[in-house]
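ZP: hey, is the 2-acetamido-2-deoxy-beta-D-glucopyranose complex queued? I don't see it on the tracker
AM: it wasn't, my bad. submitting now with these inputs:
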Amino acid sequence: MDFNSQMLLLSTLFLCFLSLQVQANIPTLQTYIIQLHPQGLTSSPFYSKRQWHLSFLEQTLSAEEDSSSRLLYSYSNAMEGFAAQLSETEIEYLKKLPDVVAVRADRKYEIQTTYSPKFLGLSLGTQGVWFNSSMGEGAIVGVLDTGVWPESPSFSDSRMPSIPQKWRGACQEGQDFNSSNCNKKLIGAKFFIKGHHVASSPPSDVDQEYVSPRDSHGHGTHTSSTAAGASVAEASVFGNGAGVAQGMAPRAHIAVYKVCWFSGCYSSDIVAAMDAAIRDGVDILSLSLGGFPLPFFDDSIAIGSFRAMQHGISVNCAAGNNGPIQSSVANVAPWITTIGASTLDRRFPAIVRLSNGEFIYGESMYPGNKFKHATKELEVVYLTGGQMGGELCLKGSLPREQVEGKIVLCDRGVNGRSEKGQIVKESGGAAMILANTAINLEEDLVDVHVLPATLIGFAEANQLKAYMNTTSNPKARIQFGGTVIGRSRAPSVAQFSSRGPSLTNPSTLKPDVIAPGVNIIAAWPQNLGPTGLPEDSRRSNFTVMSGTSMACPHVSGIAALIHSAHPKWTPAAIKSAIMTTAEVTDHYGKPILDGSKPAGVFAMGAGHINPTKAIDPGLVYDIKPYEYVIHLCALGYTHSEIFIITHMNVSCHKVLQMNKGFSLNYPSMSVVFKHKTTSKAVSRRLTNVGSPNSIYSVEVTAPKGVQVRVKPRRLVFKYVNQSLNYKVWFMSEKGKEGKTVSSSEGHLTWVHSENGKYKVRSPIVVTWKN
Ligand SMILES: *[C@@H]1O[C@H](CO)[C@@H](O)[C@H](O)[C@H]1NC(C)=O
Ligand SMILES: *[C@@H]1O[C@H](CO)[C@@H](O)[C@H](O)[C@H]1NC(C)=O
Ligand SMILES: *[C@@H]1O[C@H](CO)[C@@H](O)[C@H](O)[C@H]1NC(C)=O
Ligand SMILES: *[C@@H]1O[C@H](CO)[C@@H](O)[C@H](O)[C@H]1NC(C)=O
Ligand SMILES: *[C@@H]1O[C@H](CO)[C@@H](O)[C@H](O)[C@H]1NC(C)=O
Ligand SMILES: *[C@@H]1O[C@H](CO)[C@@H](O)[C@H](O)[C@H]1NC(C)=O
């Protein structure tokens, strides 16, 4: 090192040291959400909400400080309160001011088709649900995500009806985005960045992202087009999965709220978006975001959703991608619809043919434009044992001389699947085999890799590795088989889909349902390659993605269809329709699988969505907003916790006295036996939304270890909108028989007397806790 560069290094170090010194004297500010008493403003001298909110900062900050520069958002619809930047000392002081109900530090959440409409039976002419629901006409779906690519053909408004009169939203201007980007399909677009800005200062990422509703990531374009994208003929990903691409509700309107940035999605931004969406007049909210399961009073999404539900908005959320770990399910509030992911029966075979004649099944989208194609026979290498992560194909771990012109085997994990392909390509590799590990087992996720590649299951990976161990010169070729439909069992539960039971609220069975979330083709920004990698210079209007993020907008779109067909239904009635008509068998009429075993209720909830039936469920379990308050009381939430969640001042003592034996009218039943209790009763109320003079009788499959009694066993509905109650008793036999099971499942179904016309099914799960 010469003298000059040493000086430079020293002075840089010195400068760093200096800036650290300076920073240490400025207390670090972070974002807090401050919830206020809803009646506080009326008893204060302020004439505007913003002034009232600023007054809390003025009381807290020193006189020289500009309080308005600290205020990020004033909320009024999703929550009473505001978001502001404060130091720890300041928030300690502010907490104690009158009318402050709760204070929460900002929290980060993460984001988690050409074929799926047909798979779900949507487009069957005058028989299908699209015919009866006018394809979602009149409904507005609000999507909280990474924004939108408005020029995508999926957001074209040709033949769209005009914008509903009640719409109060707008198209917010920003970088490369203005009002001309909205139309009768994409009727609103806004972005919320203040929380993200505070959390990521210096705002390095922001330079690479559009500071506008425009999507820099692709995820939001994909999810919003899945919910309500327009029909696009001849859509495909380089010839893969070719067909008509359309959302679940092709005539519904879309309003986009960008809350997710490269570094994540912050709760202060999410609440601001929900606040705007409620005021703007959306009918459905779709949140393909998740985090860790939290108690409701500490979860801004749960609190904002409660307000949305009170306004008649259905809130649909992804269950999370942390399966198959037990109790990983997130977004579990009973007023939210929680959605897990399932597989389609569409496959993209990419078979590895070994030189010894064996072959290994894998899947991939071939990046070229040809259907049938195979690589040459090439040597296969697997760089294990090094320090650099060669077996994972991490950056810098693949020496060119060892991989050039070869097929490189890479284990999944640590870096992204497409990223591994990019690294193999950069290192000179000719092709890639991605191997599932014990974590992913046999899950098949396809990607549009930048080089010929395939993904193989865990068992297949062991087979390949064993072959490589016993051969001095292992060789193989990858043979691509195009798109194959209908030859595999589907739907099944996706391996990654988060599982119940919910730890924060075991009395509600979660997830509620599963929906297609594996290898979903939907719209994609026109300036991104289909892998989303910066190095990917290919362009496609569609790409394939997997996740509960993809499952969630399927249900949001279906909620839009139901809303369009039944505009007066509450969010609870819409959810009930989706849950009680869900399927528990696959397209072969056999139980839906979870891996190699039949799926349980903690994996699939009520089952796999069936939109055709959901639009006409016969009966619904409806819930009035106030009933959730009684439920929270019954769960033992404190007065102040309930106040934070609902903004309602209730005395649970009185509430429970007036509602003895209350059960939340949920479409599924979760019964928890604690300590020595041996019997439990729940009640339910069914409302007739089918035809007058309908008679239903009950069929029960009792969970193992309990006896179930239902009264009455017959419900006679004379007219439409009539509600009738029934009661179910569960008697635990566990003590008597000394069984060791900790939970067991069954179901209860009300069957219409014209057999098969309507079947209203509720899953039951019984859990024993000590
Ligand atoms: C659609 O409506 C028609 C006519 O009202 C009815 O016969 C048909 O059963 C409905 N289909 C569905 C799926 O609800
Ligand atoms: C919006 O942007 C487009 C393209 O950048 C431009 O042609 C148009 O004039 C702008 N419209 C408005 C209303 O600013
Ligand atoms: C292959 O050989 C390595 C080293 O001998 C061993 O650790 C590994 O378990 C073997 N793999 C298989 C699948 O046989
Ligand atoms: C994407 O769609 C646009 C608008 O329909 C079209 O002009 C363009 O050619 C398409 N791009 C590709 C790569 O197919
Ligand atoms: C709730 O109501 C009671 C009596 O109506 C009142 O004394 C109390 O201050 C209220 N609490 C809040 C947080 O509004
Ligand atoms: C049922 O109730 C809804 C909303 O309350 C109402 O719009 C509808 O007309 C009622 N239907 C009948 C047949 O009474």
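AM: back. The chain has four domains: 3-105, 109-342+491-572, 349-482, 619-623+664-769.
ZP: great, adding it to the tracker
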